[in-house]
Write a structure and sequence with these properties.
The protein is mostly helical. 78% of the residues lie in helices and 0% in strands.
Length: 231
């Protein structure tokens, strides 16, 4: 599927100086909704083209920032599609018709299991994990997760992911200007997989810090009533 998409998106990149940001927004929306495909084929080239000043403003840093923001916006829109569809349709209809939207029951159930076991923080963590990042919005909608918290955690995870991919593209842009789109995508994916351990460790640190702070706040809030009673 990756090769098929590369062939078609490669054509779109020839118009990046005009439609680049809209292309990023559109395909990241699709990628984040119920038609999953590798976001690497969008955001890595976005960083590459930004470095070469081949996006709309022909200003590398500005183009990089806007490209990441467009990727983030697309990711949020796609996540909202899954969230609200799940919220409105509910589990029975989703299980019955999900297969027609590339959402097999076993995959949806697995996403639910992860969400139930680990809670809201999974909407952040899973945005940085392959295969599950598009689907974690579904159990969030089914469980009626607070929209503000869903937006925050999803946006945080998606923003980090888009920045990492665009940064890889920017790095390769600094190394070579003659790299083809196909070479760029494959080299970028290889680099991502090679350094994924460091990304994962950084993710663990963030989750541990969040959990510690959250536990401290909840523990403090539980002591307030007793303090009031004693007074």
């Amino acid at each position: 599927m990756t090769e098929f998409l590369i062939n078609h998106i490669e054509i779109a990149t020839s118009h990046a100086h005009i439609w680049g940001f809209l292309i990023i927004l559109f395909f990241m929306t699709v990628e984040s909704s119920f038609i999953p495909f590798p976001s690497e084929i969008i955001m890595i080239p976005a960083g590459f083209l930004a470095y070469r000043a081949e996006l709309t403003f022909s200003a590398p840093v500005a183009d990089l920032i806007i490209a990441v923001l467009c990727g983030l916006a697309g990711s949020l829109i796609g996540a909202y599609i899954n969230y609200f569809l799940s919220l409105k349709l509910g589990r029975p209809l989703l299980h019955k018709y999900g297969k027609y939207f590339l959402l097999p029951i076993k995959t949806v159930e697995r996403a639910e299991e992860i969400f139930i076991e680990y809670g809201d923080i999974t909407t952040f963590v899973c945005r940085l994990l392959p295969a599950i990042r598009q689907l974690i919005s579904i159990p969030a909608g089914l469980s009626r997760m607070h929209l503000g918290r869903f937006s925050f955690f999803t946006g945080l995870g998606a923003g980090i992911w888009c920045a990492i991919l665009a940064g890889i593209g920017w790095y390769f842009g600094s190394l070579s200007e003659n790299m083809t789109y196909r070479e760029l995508v494959h080299k970028g994916k290889d680099s991502l997989h090679h350094n994924f351990l460091w990304i994962f460790l950084g993710l663990v640190v963030i989750v541990v810090v969040y959990s510690a702070v959250h536990h401290h706040i909840m523990k403090s809030s539980k002591t307030i009533p007793s303090d009031i009673d004693n007074s």
